[in-house]
Each structure stands twice: as C-alpha cells, then as structure tokens.
Amino acid sequence: MASHWPENVGIRAIEILFPSQYVDQTELETFDGASAGKYTIGLGQAKMGFCSDREDVNSLCLTVVSRLLERQHVKHSEIGRLEVGTETIVDKSKSVKSVLMQLFAESGNTDIEGIDTTNACYGGTAALFNAVNWVESSSWDGRLALAVCADIAVYAKGAARPTGGAGAVAMLVGPNAPLILDRGLRATHMEHAYDFYKPDLSSEYPTVDGKLSIQCYLSALDTCYRLYRKKFDQQQKDTSKQPASLSTFDAILFHTPFCKLVQKSVGRLSFNDFLLSSEEERTKQFPDLERFNTATLESTYFDRDVEKAFMTQSANIFASKTKKSLLLANQVGNMYTPSVYSGLVSLLISGPAQELVGKRIGLFSYGSGLAASMYSISVTQDAAAFEKFVSQLDYVQPLLNSREKVAPEQFSALMEVREKNNHAAPYTPTGSISALFPGTYYLKDVDALHRRTYERTPTISNGVH
C-alpha cells in the first residue's frame, strides 16, 4: 500500500528577532559590584539584549511573524496552523496567537488552527512538534504551519539578572524542508519540580531554585539522551553499525540559560557515553578515566571532579559540534522558548552552508517545571536548496552589529519602569520608539480595559529589516 505521508517534513524557513538594545556584561559586573569575570567568564555571557516597555510578547510575535511572511513571500492564505510557545504571559485567557490573527485579517484567512502552549522554556519545542504532527496527520489540508516562540526574560536585581535576555523565532513548517525532523527520534522526559516557576501573576520575575534547576536540567538531559540512544539504535536495521553516541551527531545544540552550562552539558553527555561503553571501549575512547568506573549519574550532578574531567575529555567535541551555536546566546542572552532555536540560527550562519549538507543535528530542549526533549534534524542532501535556505539569514550578523549599547544605569532604570508598570491600565509606554529596528511592532498604549494597541515602525524598501 502506498504511503500518504508527506515527505521530509521540517523547517522550511526560520526568522529570528532580538532586541535593538543591549547592556555590556563587563560593564554590568562593575555596576552590580560583582567580581570581574563573574558574568563574562563564569556564565559565558558577553552582552544581554533587553526590551523597554515599548515591547511585549505580543509585539515580538507580531514582528517576527510579519517579517518571516514578507521575507519568504508567503501568502497569508497559505498558513493553516499557527501555534505560539511562550512563558511571557500578558493575559490569563487571551492567547498571543489570537493577537497574531490581526496579521491575517486583510487576507480573510481565519481558518488557522493552533493556540498558545506554555511550560517555561519548552513551549516553542511543543509548538514545533505540534506543527510537524499536524502536517503528518489526517488533519493536514496541504497548507503550511507556523511555530512561533517568543519571550522576555527579566529578573529582579541580583545574581540572576545577568542571565536575562529576549527574542523571538518563527519557523515555517511543511514538507520537502531543508531541515527535516527525524521521524521516530524524539525522546521526552517530564516530571513535577519547582526549580523555576512564576506563581506571582502580578510580576514578570520568576521564583528560582538555582541549584535544583541545574540538577533538573542535567537529570532531564541524562534521561532524554539515553532514551534517544535507545530509539536510534532500534531504528538501525544494520546491527553492525555503531550504537548511538556523541559521534552520531555532526552538531549538538542545547537550551542555553547561560553559555557555561552548555559546555558542561557536552561533558555530561560524554560522561553518559563513558558509563554506557564496554570496558574495551573505555580504554580506547576514555583513557585515564578509569577512576570513574563506579560513578553514577545520580551522585555526580555537582561532582566537580567528574565535571572537570569530562569537560576536558569532550573539549574537542564542544569546539567542533556546539561552540558555534552559542553566538546569539553569548550576544543576546537567554531567550527562553526561542533559546535552542537561536542556537540553530547561530550554527547555520557560522560557516559555509555546504559544510552542513547531509549532516545530523541533535537538539536538547528544556523547560523548568519540568519538560524536556531531545530530537534530531537531518539537513537535506540538496546543496543548492540548503544554501538558499541559509542565505536568507544573511541579515542576522549585520542586525547584531547595528544594536545600540545602553549603559547599565539606563538599563536598570528601564527595568524599573517595566517592573512598576507591569499590568498597569490605562498605560502609555515611555520607551524610545526611534531605538527600535525598522519594521518593529511596538506597544502604543493600554486602555482602561487592558486592551493593547500596536503600531509598527517603518520598514526599509529592500525588505531587509
């Protein structure tokens, strides 16, 4: 019987948005009275993008979706599903997706499935999976899907503030994609934990148990990786092939709360490979690490000896398969739901496109509370199609370079404005409109009934925003 599955379902186009203003982390160290290198070396962060009160999650999504449709010349009538992943909630009932329907009003297309999906930083991955599932299901009507992730990550004054950031990503999903999600290779782990959560609905700030959050992240990584390995090995019909390991991936990307955690995560996966290898394999692949033969996953989340040994052992793997993906995380900060997809964009723009043709990319997505998945993407073998796909991201680096640096004093003052006026109504924002990138949607005002109105800065004629 002939298969009716759409072929090569995945990401056909990707658009990324980050704030037009940033604060330098070295300057922020001085302003906060932190020790030199605490944010830059200890966390691995160089700059942090932030939004004034002129932008909210709705405006970020309006901007990134409109830019993707314009840049890709996609008609509004061609979209049949649109789902938003976010943890930046401005309304407990009305979805961000419903706000985005403004963009489709003129076309008359109201037949668009999907709403918002929320669980900390995992919502964007859930939106992507749901978009792929829709295309591969009996519900698919032949149109394209949009998976959108956007967040504004802000923290109260203190040690967590430098791990903030903001951004949005929109992904066009459909068949015959340059980036194909590997079918049957999704490994998911979910459990109940209070590592990071937002119980105070009047505040943008989360409640964080830092140590527990890192333990939950690493534990979920362990579980997802082992399950991915198992599913990968089950798919291999040729039993002579090597079982799954870090060598299975040509690149591996992670949700990035801060860059240093990602380097530790690569070491953690190497530690998993070590524990799952035979004695003979350990001797060949992990020389001089016999002292860890009896170590366990559960006892080593904060074991400095294990961490240091396997970060050193996997240093070349990190350098060749992961480091390139940290460009935007280092320069913008934690975007929450778009985080791992900012890593994907960073990887795509980091070198010649032909180097990734036909390669496999592993991705780990984590959201506190908690939800996590590891899955993989296969890059198309069609070099010309992939080079065209990557060339559409040539705006990213120039846009990064064109941002405005803001002094820590001004940044702190703008954060106080956000904090003071969170959920205020009526309210007219005071943040600079001229500082925004061309083609940016911004919050014009909030009326007495909390209804938000948006306008857009002028675009530039060549379509590159």
What does this structure look like?
By secondary structure, this protein is of the alpha/beta class. The protein has a single domain, classed as Peroxisomal Thiolase, Chain A, domain 1 (3-Layer(aba) Sandwich), CATH 3.40.47. Helix content is 34%, strand content 20%. It is built from 15 helices and 16 strands. It has a nine-stranded mixed beta sheet, sandwiched between helices. It has a three-stranded mixed beta sheet with strand order 3-2-14. A hairpin with a 5-residue loop joins strand 15 and strand 16. Helix 6 crosses helix 7 and helix 7 packs across helix 9. The mean pLDDT is 95.
List keywords for this structure.
single chain, 465 residues, alpha/beta, Peroxisomal Thiolase, Chain A, domain 1, three-stranded mixed sheet
Itemize the secondary structure elements and their pairings:
Layout: E1 10-17, E2 21-24, H1 25-32, H2 38-42, E3 47-50, H3 57-72, E4 79-85, H4 96-100, E5 116-117, H5 123-135, E6 144-153, E7 165-174, E8 179-190, E9 196-197, E10 207-208, H6 210-235, E11 251-254, H7 259-276, H8 279-285, H9 304-313, H10 315-321, H11 327-332, H12 339-348, E12 360-367, E13 371-379, H13 383-391, H14 396-401, E14 404-405, H15 408-421, E15 441-446, E16 452-456
Helix pairs in contact: 6-7, 7-9
Kindly estimate the percentage of residues that lie in beta strands according to DSSP: 15-25%
CATH architectural group = 3-Layer(aba) Sandwich
- Mean pLDDT over the residues: 95
The low-confidence runs, each spanning 5 or more residues with pLDDT under 50, are: none
Q: Roughly how many Å apart are the termini?
A: 48 Å
How many helices in DSSP terms? 15
CATH superfamily: Thiolase/Chalcone synthase
Give the overall form: globular
- Total strands: 16
Helix fraction, binned, reads 25-40%
* Main sheet record: 9 strands, mixed
Q: What strand line-up does the widest sheet have?
A: 5-4-6-7-1-8-13-12-11
Radius of gyration: 22 Å
Output the structural class.
Answer: alpha/beta
CATH fold topology: Peroxisomal Thiolase, Chain A, domain 1
The CATH first-level class comes to Alpha Beta
Q: How many domains in all? A: 1
Pathway: Metabolic intermediate biosynthesis; (R)-mevalonate biosynthesis; (R)-mevalonate from acetyl-CoA: step 2/3
GO biological process, one term: sterol biosynthetic process
Protein name: Hydroxymethylglutaryl-CoA synthase
Keywords: Acyltransferase, Lipid biosynthesis, Lipid metabolism, Steroid biosynthesis, Steroid metabolism, Sterol biosynthesis, Sterol metabolism, Transferase
